[in-house]
Write a structure and sequence with these properties.
Elements lengths: L8 E3 L2 E6 L2 E7 L5 E8 L2 H20 L11 H13 L6 H12 L5 H17 L10 H11 L2 H20 L27 H13 L15 H10 L3 H6 L5 E4 L2 E4 L11
Helix pairs in contact: 3-6, 4-6, 7-8
């Protein structure tokens, strides 16, 4: 039976909480790459399973051996991996995954995104040697691209390309995204920004609501954005995560409000 108090825990970098009727694990690894998955039904046994999995994830990350298929940590994902291996009939290369992504998204993505972002990704395939397109050549492909582009230029293109790869991971067309182990385009280098003090946050929100610094020629009053600013301050989520929240992501449980942040709004998904 479920024991009161077995609701949430922090094990290293892994947060354990309840999502619906199951325990959920959430963590960020590598920097900027968020992971979350449900692992077991809410019960005493499920709690023990979740804590053991969280401990194992921390150990594997420390050893540089993290399993991003989650099969090592979750019986459900292990079964999914076995099924995917049995059903795998073809080894897709990077360009094929990109073309599959485009065929699915072409009707929902704006023309400006296709012209600006997709065409630039297409251009990458004009210069990548064909023998680097196999997924087991991810390290060689990344090294080659970094020799041709500055990281600031390459990162937006890789974020679009990684979305294409991750789509096929979710469909189990492929098992993992091998590129994330080698290079993350989500990493931010340099000095970390200092956080606002609570009193500063209150002052900022008050200024937005009162239109204190609103330019006279602005088409929108700052108060128009005040609810969004307050939401970001209260949750700590990114703007792209806030824009992607739907009513289905908001749940009430035991007098508390839970918001699920499991997706982001990007230019590649307009």
């Amino acid at each position: 039976m479920y024991t009161e108090g077995q609701e949430r825990a922090k094990v290293g970098i892994v947060s354990v909480d309840i999502h619906g009727n199951s325990y959920r694990l959430r963590f960020v690894y590598p920097e900027g790459s968020r992971h979350q998955f449900t692992i077991a039904r809410v019960s005493s046994e499920g709690w023990s399973t979740s804590i053991r999995a969280a401990q194992l994830i921390n150990r594997d990350i420390d050893l540089g051996d993290f399993d991003d298929s989650y099969a090592r940590y979750s019986p459900k994902h292990a079964r999914k991996l076995q099924i995917a291996k049995k059903e795998a009939k073809k080894e897709y290369n990077l360009k094929e995954l990109w073309e599959m992504y485009k065929s699915v998204k072409v009707k929902t993505v704006s023309k400006s995104t296709i012209k600006k972002d997709w065409s630039r990704v297409d251009n990458l395939f004009e210069i990548i040697p064909s023998n680097f397109l196999a997924l087991d050549k991810a390290e060689e492909a990344i090294k080659f691209l970094l020799s041709k582009y500055a990281s600031g230029t390459l990162n937006p293109l890789l974020r679009v390309l990684y979305a294409a790869i991750n789509m096929q991971v979710k469909k189990t067309t492929i098992l993992v995204n091998p590129y994330l182990h080698i290079y993350s385009p989500y990493q931010k280098k340099g000095k970390k920004p200092e956080c606002f003090e609570p009193k500063e946050v209150k002052a900022i929100i008050l200024a937005f609501n009162a239109n204190t610094f609103n330019p006279k020629d602005s088409p929108y009053c700052h108060s128009y954005y005040a609810p969004m600013i307050e939401f970001l301050a209260l949750t700590g989520c990114r703007p792209s995560e806030a824009h992607a929240v739907t009513w289905e992501d908001i749940k009430l449980s035991n007098g508390k409000t839970f918001i699920r942040f499991n997706k982001v709004w990007t230019s590649a998904e307009r």
